[in-house]
Specification:
Layout lengths: L1 H25 L11 E7 L18 E5 L14 H6 L8 H8 L3 E6 L33 H8 L5 E6 L5 H7 L2 E4 L19 E6 L2 H11 L12 E5 H6 L4 H16 L4 E4 L1 H8 L18 H28 L6 H6 L8 H19 L3 E6 L16 H17 L2 E10 L2 E9 L4 H50 L3 H14 L4 H13 L3 H14 L4 H14 L2 H14 L4 H13 L2
Parallel strand pairs: 2-3, 2-4, 7-8, 7-9
Antiparallel strand pairs: 1-3, 4-6, 5-6, 5-10, 9-11, 10-11
Length: 588
């Protein structure tokens, strides 16, 4: 009976995969209700609620999804690859972390897309399609846990699990504009999860709501809700923000203002984290990749990133090289090409560096410190953008990921609004083992950060509006000068520029109408006057000019109405009176 059920499930999975491939062939970007986040749908239901007076399950009424690197009994785990599906059997047990969440009251509703073999941080997958980023549909969602981030950002689930080795949860959280938590290394058991690079692997999760993020964390980390510790230090990592493509002030000001409001200015300070690590970890020089002394601004961060990438590659190869060798033609060339020999690398050397990085960051942050860095270099890259294959761009992105990956410290991605209509975020890092402190701090500060984001957006909008108004007035004045010099087309162009900058001023349309009249463009003049009157019904000159335009177009009755309205507003207006008399004599 069990084997029959497994076979049926395998058939269903095969049909689901075939459907994905068919859609991918028909459309460049499949228009699916789930934004392409899911590989398969399933339903793992929690046990019955305990009888009163016992408390209900802690995650009751929540639903979640899992990246398809987590095993579910009777399902084949795809690991982001169709070839992997063909060569592996269905799982015989469900991942411990998934079972824990279901037993805690949450409903698991499906498996989500990950990058092929969870190797990349961009979120692209040639087998199952790239999930559509709900926050910026023309941008990549980030990876490797792309589908889980998309499922949360799109409101399909309350939270979702992902795996994070070199940014696999943090980056998609930032790109999709949701909260993303990477816990301290090895604090959550990874049994029942396909390994990527065990020394770097963590099980992370996404949520839109910081309360949900914390509830999930308290269950998985087996934390109590007592002894909330207030943060006493927030360190802004200035050199990390210098790496960012977004102005540092835009990223940091919402955090600094929020911290000042909640905890006071005295807890804020700045640090050059690269210099700090260089002074504490001389062995980082071993990973400098031959950088010259003149290129030392970010040398420590880049050395740390290089060490992380070497370790990631080394351990990934140890885990999967045998399978990759047997299925090489079906594995993405970028993965195969990246697994070249590590030269003189030994695991012991890198592991020693990891210990030193952890000790250094723990010494800085202690039990009550938070390090603030950008989550990624900037806005998510556009789909098929050059940055995705740029060695320098990817290296700098990984610099920001290497701090937590190499130290094992916990990190949370926090959205801080938009830049160029794309989500942006910062990350908060606490010492290894400081997970409860970081989750509590995130919940405490999140609402204030979002308030500051909203205030900043309004302030920027007001500032931009004021600048546009000033520029529009300058364009209008130049238009007036051109009009006086009888440069009618130049005047029209300048008035048009003013309208583009501020389309709410009747005078700009009215003045452009005057220039159109000089060029005998009566239709345009009539249209501009009508717009001016809609904005300001008491603008006399607009009625006079529209009346003139209508007279020239042969709309005599309407012209008389306009001139008459001008007289109502300004009874002594001679131009209106003369025009009315003229028209009544010509057309009694």
């Amino acid at each position: 009976m069990a084997s029959s059920t497994a076979a049926n499930l395998w058939v269903l999975l095969g049909l689901g995969i075939a459907g994905v491939l068919l859609a991918a062939k028909r459309l460049k970007r499949p228009a699916r209700p789930d934004n392409g986040a899911f590989i398969s749908r399933l339903e793992l239901l929690p046990p019955p609620q305990p009888p009163p007076p016992q408390a209900r399950h802690p995650l009751t009424d929540l639903c979640f999804a899992i990246a398809d690197a987590f095993h579910v009994s009777s399902y084949i785990t795809s690991f982001g690859s169709l070839e992997w599906v063909k060569t592996h059997d269905a799982a015989t047990q469900t991942s411990l972390v998934v079972s824990t969440l279901v037993d805690g009251g949450a409903i698991c509703v499906g498996k989500t897309v990950i990058d092929e073999m969870a190797y990349s941080i961009h979120g692209e997958n040639r087998h199952f399609g790239t999930p559509t980023n709900p926050a910026a549909s023309d941008r990549v969602p980030g990876g490797c846990s792309s589908g889980s981030a998309v499922a949360v950002a799109g409101g399909m689930v309350d939270f979702a699990l992902g795996i994070d080795s070199i940014g696999g949860v943090r980056v998609p959280g930032g790109y999709c504009g949701v909260l993303a938590f990477r816990p301290s290394h090895a604090v959550i058991p990874s049994c029942g999860v396909i390994p990527v690079a065990p020394s770097l692997d963590t099980i992370g999760w996404f949520a839109r709501d910081p309360i949900v993020l914390r509830r999930v964390g308290h269950l998985l980390l087996k934390l109590s809700y007592t002894d909330i510790r207030l943060p006493r230090h927030f360190y802004i990592a200035d050199d990390c923000f210098e790496l960012s493509k977004i102005p540092a002030r835009r990223l940091t000001q919402v955090v600094t203002k929020s911290v000042e409001k909640l905890y006071g200015r005295q807890v804020l300070s700045h640090v050059n984290i690269g210099n700090y690590l260089a002074s504490r970890i001389p062995s980082l020089r071993n990973y400098s990749n031959g950088q010259k002394n003149g290129d030392s601004k970010f040398s420590s961060l880049r050395a740390l990133s290089s060490a992380m990438q070497l370790l990631h590659k080394h351990e990934f190869r140890d885990q999967h090289n045998e399978w990759i060798s047997s299925a090489k033609s079906a594995v993405d060339a970028s993965i195969v090409g990246n697994l070249s020999d590590d030269g003189d690398l030994t695991t012991d050397i890198v592991q020693e560096a990891r210990k030193e990085v952890r000790l250094a960051l723990n010494a800085l942050l202690k039990d009550d410190g938070i390090l603030v860095i950008p989550t990624a270099l900037g806005c998510p890259p556009k789909i098929n953008a050059k940055e995705l294959s740029s060695t320098s761009y990817n290296a700098d992105t990984l610099c920001l990921q290497s701090l937590s990956s190499m130290s094992g410290c916990c990190q949370v991605t926090v959205p801080v609004g938009e830049h160029d209509k794309c989500p942006i975020s910062v990350s908060l890092i606490a010492r290894h083992g400081g997970d409860r402190f970081l989750l509590d701090t995130t919940q405490a500060i999140y609402a204030t950060i979002q308030e500051q984001v909203e205030m900043l957006a309004k302030s920027n909008a007001s500032s931009k509006e004021a600048m546009n108004e000033e520029a529009a007035e300058a364009a209008k004045e130049k238009g007036n000068s051109a009009f006086k010099e009888k440069q009618w087309q130049k005047a029209i162009n300048l008035y048009t520029e003013a309208i583009k900058l501020n389309g709410k001023v009747a005078t700009y349309y009215n003045n452009r109408a005057a220039a159109f009249l000089e060029l005998a463009s009566y239709r345009q003049a009539e249209t501009d006057c009508t717009t001016a009157i809609d904005i300001d019904p008491k603008i006399v000159k607009a009625y006079l000019r529209r009346g003139t335009a209508r007279e020239m177009l042969g709309y005599y009755k309407e012209a008389v109405d306009d001139f008459s309205h001008a007289l109502v507003l300004e009874p002594m207006n001679r131009t209106a009176g003369i025009a009315i008399n003229r028209l009544k004599k010509l057309f009694p």
